[in-house]
Amino acid sequence: MDIKDIKANSEFSRRVYEIVYKIPKGKTMTYGEIARMLNSSPRAVGQALKRNPNAPWVPCHRVIKSDDSMGGYNGMHGVAQKIDMLRKEGIRIVDGVKSQER
Question: For 24-82, how does the pLDDT look when each residue is reduced to its tens digit (9 = 90+)?
């Protein structure tokens, strides 16, 4: 699939999905970072991702909270699935928080 194939129910959602689509495997962004790019709020970004019809192609599992905790995930197995997906991409998660290895 290509970015032009992204499905969205609003222009705002499309813009969120286009940003998330570009997050590389093994990396994350926060809801707040995306919100700042769109001059919006982290909650609005979360609501758009909650309804993401393009997952996992638009990898909403790579979006986390600003404190590096997971936030929500609407996959079949919830946040546990999000953690599993991130770990498979090489991201270290300890007690539900992305570990900042030094």
Answer: 999 999 999 999 999 999 999 999 999 999 988 999 999 999 999 999 888 777 899 99
Residues 6+ apart with CB under 8 A from 8: 14, 17, 48, 53
Residue among 34, 48, 58, 60 flagged as catalytic: 60
For the record, the structure tokens of 77 come out as 């197995």
Q: What is the pLDDT of residue 102?
A: 39
pTM: 0.92
Q: Is the pLDDT confidence value at 96 over 70?
A: yes
The whole-angstrom separation of Cα 2 and Cα 84 is: 25
Domain covering 3-89 in this structure, CATH number: 1.10.10.10
**Strand bridging mode 93-94 / 97-98:** antiparallel
Question: Would you list the domain boundaries of the chain?
Answer: 3-89
CA distance 82 to 40: 24
Q: Is 60 a catalytic residue?
A: yes
